[in-house]
Amino acid sequence: MSLRERTTAATAFALPSPLGQCVWPNSRTCTMKNKPAAAGGWQVVASRGTRPQLRRGLEESRAERGVTRPEASAKDKEEQAAVGRVAEVALGRGAGGKREVKLVELVTEVKRSASKVCWDVVDSDDNHDFVLEKDIKFVIPGDPTQVANDIQGFVKRSQTYSAGHEKLKECWRSFGENEMLRIFEFSRRLFESQELEAVYAAHRVLEEDDVYFKRRKGRIEARDAKTVDALLCRAQSARDIEDRRARVTELMRKDVESGSKQSRSTSDPVVQECIRCLKDLARRGAQQQRDSTAWYKEATFLTAIDRDVLRYVLEELGYNPTPFGALSLLFRLGYDMVDFNVFLESSHLMPFVFGPEVEAEVKDILENEADDPDAGSRVDYRDIRSFAIDAPESQEIDDAIGILNQNGENRICVHIADPLRWLKPQMSIFREALRRGASAYLATGVIPMIPEALSQELFSLGSGKRSEYPAITVSFVVREDGHIDEIRVENSLVRITDILTYQEADALVADNSDPIVAAMNSIGRLRANFRDMRGAVSISLPEIEISVTREENGVFDFATAATDFESSPSRVFVSEMMIAACEAVGRYCIERNISVPYRGSELRAEPSDEVIDKVPQGVAQESLRLRRMMRSETKLDPMPHKSLGLDHYCQMTSPLRRATDLTAHLQLKTYWRGEASRTDRQLWSMVKTALAGAREMKFLESRTNLYWRLAYVVHRGLDRLYEGILLFPMRKNECNVFIVELGYRFAASRPGH
Question: Cα 29 to chain center, whole Å?
Answer without folding.
Answer: 48
